[in-house]
Design goal:
Number of helices: 16
CATH topology of the largest domain: Rossmann fold
Strand content: 5-15%
Order of helices and strands: HHHHHEEEHEHHHHHEHEHEHEHH
Strand order of the largest sheet: 1-2-4-3-5-6-7-8
Distance between the termini: 36 Å
CATH class of the largest domain: Alpha Beta
CATH architecture of the largest domain: 3-Layer(aba) Sandwich
Shape: elongated
CATH superfamily of the largest domain: Alpha/Beta hydrolase fold, catalytic domain
Structural class: alpha/beta
Number of domains: 2
Radius of gyration: 27 Å
Length: about 375
């Protein structure tokens, strides 16, 4: 994950080392041979051309270093220029570029770190904030391959969760657990609310053959147990976290939205908040709306975010979204504190759209200061 920055930094460190060695070697040879630096540099028109060319390149390099250092927040850039006076730009510029890659990686990781594990043939990526403490909130997210690194995502886009946490989330930064699916083929069976699907075989029968013929039985309950009974306790124990439903949320989109609501209903002692983007109510239609909302826990101690767009696949969601919101409200959930039921005009069914509302949803969950909870 984020390998390119680590690889590039190593390459630049290697080039810097070569630059340092060659600069000192050739300078040493020139000193031992009592070379006249001034005449050697300016003894002919060719030398003038080379000297001016190097001067222009050097000015360009220095300008780039100054601009990049300011943009990325790199401090003490003057040290690189000081080193150039003792060695050569062939050493200090690659050295600067190596530390630049490290800074880029630090920014992409929002100042934290990512660990990777495997549970029951599922990849699990865990992002840890730098200021981790026992009361740090914990967020579990579905479709984990789409969360952090665009190179892992099957759409080439991510939810941009870490930029949102770095730049927009106020208050405590949560641990983010990105749970990959067992496989693309079994995604529906893992994220479908099992207790509903087991009673409605017609939902599967109405699916396209590519989905209906996916191997295995319903896997939703096993998936919920994997989150609640295996992954969360492991992460909490490893990092000294004190799990509390008030600080634990589950988040997903589309089928992941249905699973987030289902997990909230099945394990209310674990999850206190469900965040569901573009909740895929048409999967099961009215049966899904009626039965999933009946499984929701006590509104006094739980919270729900559910939304929809208006274009692409989301254009079919409006009547189901409206019916679901009415039933959720009938269960005692009310805006703005325990419910957000939003419609985002001109947005559709894609990570690039969901990424735009990640920060707002997280700030609502975390009850961030100065956030309008409505």
């Amino acid at each position: 994950m984020f390998k390119k920055h680590r690889i590039r930094s190593r390459i630049y460190f290697t080039i810097a080392a070569l630059g340092l060695i060659t600069a000192w070697w050739f300078n040493a040879m020139a000193v031992f041979q009592e070379a006249d630096y001034l005449r050697a540099w300016f003894g002919s028109y060719v030398d003038w051309v080379l000297s001016l060319d190097l001067l222009i390149v050097g000015a360009g390099v220095i300008t780039f270093m100054l601009v990049e250092a300011k943009r990325l927040g790199m401090k003490r850039v003057w040290i690189y220029f000081l080193l150039s006076g003792f060695t050569a730009m062939a050493f200090t510029f690659p050295l600067f570029m190596a530390f630049r890659e490290r800074k880029l990686l630090q920014l992409r990781l929002a100042g934290g770190s990512i660990e990777r594990y495997e549970f029951d043939n599922h990849i699990v990526d865990v992002w840890l904030p730098a200021d981790l403490n026992p009361e740090t909130p914990v967020l579990v997210m579905h479709d984990g391959r789409n969360i952090f690194d665009e190179k892992d995502s099957y759409t080439g886009k991510t939810w941009e969760v870490l930029p949102a946490i770095r730049d927009e989330v106020r208050g405590p930064k949560p641990v983010v657990i990105a749970l990959w699916g067992f496989s693309d083929l079994t995604r529906l069976r893992e994220l479908a609310p099992q207790k509903i699907l087991d009673n409605h075989q017609e939902i599967w029968d109405g699916m396209p053959a590519d989905y209906a013929d996916a191997p295995g039985e319903s896997m939703g309950d096993a998936y919920v147990s994997l989150m609640a009974d295996a992954i969360l306790p492991f992460v909490a124990d490893k990092h000294g976290l004190e799990l509390n439903p008030d600080r634990t949320a589950v988040m997903g989109s589309s089928m992941g939205g249905l699973m987030s609501l289902y997990a909230l209903g099945q394990r209310p002692e674990v999850f206190g908040t469900a965040i569901a983007f573009s909740t895929h109510w048409p999967f099961g239609g009215n049966d899904m709306v009626n039965e999933l909302t009946e499984l929701l826990p006590d509104a006094a101690s739980h919270r729900i975010w559910t939304d929809t767009g208006t274009i692409e696949l989301d254009q079919y969601y409006a009547p189901f979204h409206k019916a679901a919101v009415e039933k959720i409200q009938a269960r005692g959930y009310s805006e703005p504190d325990s419910l957000v039921a939003a419609t985002y005009p001109n947005t559709g069914h894609h990570e690039s759209y969901w990424a735009r509302r990640v920060a707002d949803a997280l700030n609502w969950w975390l009850r961030a200061p100065d956030r309008d909870q409505g």
